[in-house]
Amino acid sequence: MAAVTHICKSLLFVLLTLRIIPQQHCNYKMSFIKVDETCDFSIHNLPYGVFSTPDNPRHRIGVAIGDQILDLSVIKSLFTGPALSTHQDVFSQSTLNAFMALGPAAWQEARRVLQKLLSANEATLRDDVSLRSRAFVHQSLAEMHLPAEIGDYTDFYSSRDHATNVGIMFRGKENALMPNWLRLPVGYHGRASSVVVSGTPLRRPQGQMRPDPTQPPVFSQCKQLDIELEMAFLVGPGNKLGEPIPIDKAHEHIFGMVLMNDWSARDIQAWEYVPLGPFLGKNFGTTISPWVVPMEALMPFVLPNAVQDPKPLPYLCHEDPYTFDINLFVSVKGKAMEEAATISKSNFKYMYWTMKQQLAHHSVNGCNLRPGDLLASGTISGPDPESFGSMLELSWRGTKTIDLGNGETRKFLEDGDEVYLTGYCQGSGYRVGFGVCKGKVLPALPM
Fold first, then answer.
1. What are the distances in angstroms from CA 75 to CA 29, 259, 361?
2. Could you give the residue ranges of the DSSP H alpha helices within 71-122?
3. Residue 24, pLDDT score
4. How far apart are alpha carbons 63 and 48 in whole angstroms?
5. How far apart (Å, rounded) are the C-alpha atoms in residues 55 and 57?
6. CA distance to 357, 364, 411, per residue, from 354 (Å)
7. Residue of 25, 87, 138, 162 with catalytic role
8. Cα–Cα distance for residue pair 68/64, rounded to 1 Å
9. Is 162 a catalytic residue?
10. Which of 26, 197, 307, 372 is the least buried, fewest Cβ under 10 Å from its Cβ?
11. Half-sphere exposure of 99 (CA within 13 A, CB side)
12. What is the sign of the dihedral through the CA atoms of 149, 155, 158 and 162?
């Protein structure tokens, strides 16, 4: 009987992911909150974030719907299902960590409740004027904060096109990919202290570099400041030290995704990265979007995984699709520009290694992951120049100019430049989007 149940559950998962039958969240097509077709925050999305307001500076958890935020601390008593009835206080916390730690049953139950409460034909919130006035905040009145306390941050290098482009630049076409790249999800352990929320300005870094290979290194401000178009996911339940997360369970530990700009000082990085990899060229700042889109909202946009040749070792193999059709854009606005210019149009579907593979690999040696850990994709580049995810590639290591229009060009970022990352999945008459991940370059401190 247990075997039959397992087979039925497996079949249901396959049917859902292949879109042969609709997922439950599609039962609610419209919300009583007005949502434009091009708005990122439809009832099909319902991303989680942490916000405060001028009249209430306490950090609290909210869900985005249209141009509003639903304050979950106000309506926590409405979560009365078996997974959440004894855990309602997770919605009174100042971060998402406690909620993420509860796991998939709680996440799914919360989503069902929220979609029902926000649906056009549900009266609980819609018709209670007093409750609505306390529960909803216009997004324009809110300040967004980091959605989680991020204990650890890991950056992968999982786009084959990006790795190939960078390899060609620095090692030549014959040695573009290192021997291990097609065998495992290459990554490095970063730092969480300088991960900041969208809208936080970052100062141009300084460090040691060697612009003239015939001369000794110099200390200077970065001259080749770059962006990296990335996405990242937040870990839900962790694992005990010494106990790996098997790949067939990896999705149970992936809560949701954010946009990410991993700012990069290319000239500092080029001098320091041998033999241990990035350090000061990366650790001065990483920006993430404030809204965490739950994985269940992304499942209608799942795609077949990249064909991997050679076939990975068994601990990295999974047949279920876990790659997603997420349209991604990078725009830059200089000080003299009235509007931002789009410099890259890419897609998350170009990734070679999946998030499940990244998570399984990260823990296979027994490394213990914890709720709120941030695992990033690495730069997302596609096969065409317009889909390159860094200025290093778009300018081909500074040998080309990037046209921003009206006579404005760049090879790398200038002081005062503002960078915007956006992304969304396109449904039929609705979007599941991520909002904006933005940051501004401030001048370096005087030397």
1. 22, 28, 39
2. 97-101, 104-118
3. 42
4. 5
5. 6
6. 5, 15, 31
7. 162
8. 6
9. yes
10. 307
11. 31
12. positive
CA distances from 92 to 15, 119, 262 (A): 36, 23, 31
Query: How far apart, in whole angstroms, are the C-alpha atoms of residue 225 and residue 22?
Result: 45
Closest CA to 330 of 382, 388, 286: 388
- CA angle, residues 372, 85, 243, in degrees to nearest 5: 40
| Chain centroid to CA 242 | 27
User: Which residues make Cβ contacts (< 8 Å) with residue 32, sequence separation at least 6?
Assistant: 118, 119, 120, 122, 125, 126
Q: Which amino acid is at 127?
A: D
Q: Which residue, chain included where needed, has tokens 């630049």?
A: 169
Say what the pLDDT of residue 19 is. Answer: 36
Go through the chain and tell me how many residues it has.
447
The rounded percent of the chain whose pLDDT value lies above 70 is 94
Alpha carbon of 317 to those of 4, 136, 246, 429: distances in Å?
24, 44, 10, 35
- Are the beta carbons of 2 and 88 closer than 8 angstroms? no
Nearest-10 Cα torsion for 416, 420, 421, 425: 180
Tens digits of residue pLDDT in 22-71: 344 446 789 999 999 999 999 999 999 999 999 999 999 999 999 999 99
Instruction: Tell me if 46 sits within 8 A of 62, measured CB to CB.
Output: no
Quick one: DSSP state of residue 419?
Answer: E
256 Cβ contact list (under 8 Å, min separation 6): 47, 48, 233, 234, 292, 293, 294, 295, 297
Q: What are phi and psi of 347, to 5 degrees?
A: -160, 140
Q: What's the helix, strand, coil split of the chain in %, to 5?
A: 25, 30, 45
Give the tokens for residue 189. 């352990």
164-191 tens-digit pLDDT: 999 999 999 999 999 999 999 999 999 9
